[in-house]
Structure formats: C-alpha cells, structure tokens
Specification:
With 448 residues, this protein is an alpha+beta fold. 41% of the residues lie in helices and 18% in strands.
Length: 448
Amino acid sequence: MSQEKKIKPSLPSGTRDFLPAEVAKRNYIFDVIKKVFHKYGFQQIETPVLENLATLTGKYGEEGDQLLFKVLNSGDFLKDADEEALRNKNSKKVLPKIADRGLRYDLTVPLARYVVQHQNDLVFPFRRYHIAPVWRADRPQKGRYREFYQCDADIIGSDSLINEAELTQIFSEVFQALKLKAEIRINNRKILEAISIYAGCADKLESMTVAIDKIDKIGLEGISKELTQREFSEEQINKIASLLSIKKLADLKNYFQEIPSGMKGVEELEFVFENANISNLIFDITLARGLNYYTGVIWEIKSLDTQMGSIGSGGRYANLTEMFGGRNMSGVGISFGVERIYDIMEELKLFPENISQSTKLLFAHFNEKNQDYAFKLLQQCRAAGIAAEIYPDLSKIDKQFKYANAKGIPYVAVVGDNEMNTAQVNLKNMQSGEQKLLNAEDLIAALK
C-alpha cells in the first residue's frame, strides 16, 4: 500500500454521507410517518435497488430516460457490443448490449411491476408503503441530489373516495406529529378539464395547466401573458381568469351546470372535505401538477413556517398496472418530501432533544479490576433493556467523561476501588452534575 498512490477520499457528485446525529433525525421522521401508515393499515414492501432497464425505460418520457443510471453488465460488457455503433459513438445502439439493468428512478414504476408480478399473492385493495432511496442522473444543485429518499403510500385496486379522505387525514396527522404547520392544498383534474371546456380550449388543456401551475411565481397577470404567447384568445383567457379567483367549491357549480365532468370533480372534492374533516385542507383551483399522470384528486402540501417548495404531494391515477400487461387497476397515492421536511425541522429546531442519543449509560473506571467489575454490571443493565456501554481503554477518568459529553451520554457510572468494596457505583447525571451511590438493583431502577 505504501508504494501505491494514496487516494483522497471523496463522494460521487450529488450524494451525501450522514453523520450519526443526522441519521437519527431522519429516522425520527421515518418512524413518525411509519407509525401513522401502520395506524391506517398500510403494509411495508421492499423492491430491489436494481430494476431491468426494460422495466424503467419509456415510463418517464425522453428526459426521464436520459436521467436513468444504467449499470454495466458484469464481466466483459463490451464483448457483444455493436462495433460500428461504438465507432460512431451511437450510445442508443450500444446500450442494449452493454447494460440491461438500472437504478430505480422512483418508487412508482417498481410498484406497478411489483403488483403485476405478485397480483395472485396480494390482497386487494392493496395498501402499501415504501421508504427507500432512488437515483436520478440530474445536475446536482442546492436541494437537489442524485441519490435521495422517497416516502410513498398507495392504495391499489379501489375507486372509493374513502381512500382520498384517509390519505388526506394521513397528511394531516403526520405533519401534526412532526409539529410542522402545513397547508394541504387539493384540486381535481376533472375541474381543470372543465375549466378548459368552459373556456372553449379543451384541445389545449396541457398548455393551460402548465401556465396555471405557475401562478405562485408569476401571478394572474403573468399567466394571462403566457396564455397569450401560447395563442389562447382574449375571450378564452378572460374565462380562465374568471375561474382562477374562485375559492369556494360550491361557486363552481354555477359555471359547470352543462359540464358533467366538472360537476363530478366538485362532488368528489366535497366528499373528501366532508369525510376528511381537516381544518387545514384548502381548495386550490390553480393546483395543476402531474396532469400527465393524475386523473382525479390532486394534493400538494406547503409549509406555513418557512419558504420552501412542496413538502408532500399525490393524487389519483388510472391504469397503473396496464404498463406491464396487468389487469386495469386504478390507484391513489401520496408522497412525503422527506429531504425538505428534514431541512425545515432543522431550521425551526423541531427535532426532540437527545434524539441522537443512543447510549444512556457509560461505565467509567480507574483500573483493570474496576473495569472487570463494571463489565459485569454492564451485562445486567443491558439485560434490563438499558442502552449502555463501557469505556474500553484504560484511560484517565477525565478522558472518559469527555467521551460521554461528546456522545451526549446523559449518565456515567463511575467504578473505583471504594465502589467495588461496597458493591456500588457512583452515578453522575451529566446535565445536572448530581451524583448518587447506588447498588446494581437501584441503578437499573433509576435508569429504567
């Protein structure tokens, strides 16, 4: 090794290491979310990090395909490659012969594959959640990484709006448990379609929604300008604008009397409002995200405590399993923006104190005999369910106390010759400085 050039440690661009304290905070968020998921009857699944490229490609559009991480075949991956394509640097022709697997891009396509592959083993409606990392070969920048976690919950195989009501409640309960003030915005694709019909531009639904979705950034005037650039007529723009200021669902009925899909969208949202019974649920007629995917209810969650993008989203979708030749099953799902939730909680200091504390008790000692005695007590404490450790080296007592402070260990049990002779330990509370002489039984009782 000394003859070799030493490599400076580094990470691939767009990835991160997490220190123990950071992992503890992330796990706290995951544990809160999991607890709510379990309360609502969701079951956790896992899928491989790797999926066949045939599973992934063509599901995210041309841009998404470019962002897939491809994994080279094992061994001599060039042996079957098209030599002419290699010479011409034709990556599209070369790829099928050198890579047949890739890292998962999201958790939704693997879910579709999973449901079709295991449909005879699953109970429908299937309530699943999945918390796992995904990978995208995007350009790294602040708040955007190539490796990041997604946290999804979906109900597959049911058209009932009860599902939408419950998922709305899940959003509310999770953010309440995390002490995050959040606004749950909701809309329905059917309402957006009805707006385009009312305005006489049903053939331009996608262009209209792309513009509408920017209202938070460019305002109503900016939307009007963009729609003009997209060749919407003045009459169409005025009709669209007249509806975008509506805040109450019931008011839409006056405009949608002759548009059945619009009335249906209003009725669906009224059902969710009535049955979810959430005070921070807000109807937002301008919410238009994911319309190439969602077919019914749409959610987006905004933090009220800090300026941040979406911290949660979701919606109703149809034909999830058709892409893999399965029988047609609709679904509805939500996703938590764990990375942004973490950043907000860190900024607002919302994580509980001592969250990174893994050890409750450290045994400190003066010599080898003290250490042997303390090691036996350590086993008793662990058997009683107390997270404890012993300082492994024979070091000065000050160094052992510094170790406890650096790790945030709240209690230190000091064992010296006097403590051994009386079958006790000197228990020190590292926060208050209080010290007590306790026998093993009392020590365990005090810490439990």
